Amino acid sequence: MSLLDYFKSSKPTSASIAKERLQILVAHERASLNQPSYLPKLKQELLQVIQKYFEVNENSISVNMEQDDERETLELNIILPDEETSKKSISTTNKGK
Amino acid sequence: MARIIVVTSGKGGVGKTTTSSAVAMGLAKKGHKTAVIDFDVGLRNLDLIMGCERRVVYDFVNVINGEATLNQALIKDKRCNNLYILPASQTRDKDALTQEGVGKVLDELSKGFKYIICDSPAGIERGANLAMYFADDAFVVTNPEVSSVRDSDRMLGILSSKSRRAEEGKEPIKEYLLLSRYSPERVKLGEMLSVDDVQDILSLHLLGVIPESKSVLNASNSGTPVILDEKSDAGQAYADIVARYLGEDKPHRFIEDKKGLFGKLFRSR
Ligand SMILES: Nc1ncnc2c1ncn2[C@@H]1O[C@H](COP(=O)(O)OP(=O)(O)OP(=O)(O)O)[C@@H](O)[C@H]1O
Ligand SMILES: [Mg+2]
Description:
heterodimer; B: eight-stranded mixed β-sheet; binds magnesium ion
């Protein structure tokens, strides 16, 4: 590797890594700030039910609440394990207020 | 009616008290009658930074509890007769501040003062919440560093929901960014978040950038608000901030690295 290559290989600076991490985190935290406080509990309870039928863990389920002017949307996303089914994914959205 | 400014940050040690003392002194020196209040109950420090620690007799909590009048507790600054300091109590009782009590004191102060600066403690507990509750303006002090930026963002969320203005459905608190302990050299090397990076995340009105500066420690050693050190970079940064807040048009300084060799060679002045 020549000296020039060394300078060219643009390794991201620590500041740019910091910025990227912050952007992701802040977006996430702003979204969850507006989430109802019962959401984590709802997620836990749903997980328990689903675990009766599938081998899933915390990371394979996401529960989100979104709100716009017209309606609230509860979005439930479960990724089922590979062995049982070939990448089946249940996705339910329940709309209406 | 006074304008109430909260100096807040979420994260500790980012420069709230340094900023409160400098801004209060700056506003007072511009001829505005100003009071600066320490909300850090249990850990008062503003008195030390302002250099009036030996003149504290009564404090904020004494006034709230009716043990002293506001006039007895206010300490008049010896350098500027427009400036008064209301020290925090050293009590360990976390519930000493009440919303009603703070509201009453601020109401009374509002009659005689033009600006009231509330130096918030770190965190999101009672003292911090009460410091911001009655505010008209918020100076969000942030360091160019991940945890400080994150905490500032959280404070913005709280400012917009848990304040008197929010509860009464009034015009929201005006939020300003004060980016402190900034090192243009390190930004240039990619070692520190730049003003633009921070603004991409927080997108606030930038009131000013305060450089990392030895003058801040020197000033606190002697109990002098750093703005009185007119030769220092931090002192000038705060003077600009006060001027901008009062509506003067001041170009931003202390953002570019001027110490570089090329900067020196090619700068005309
Ligand atoms: N621009 C600056 N350059 C260098 N040092 C600074 C600067 N601003 C603040 N400091 C230093 O950082 C430390 C913390 O400052 P300060 O007490 O103002 O922060 P704070 O936010 O009020 O802290 P706390 O959350 O504990 O109330 C002090 O030692 C101060 O001297
Ligand atoms: Mg402080």
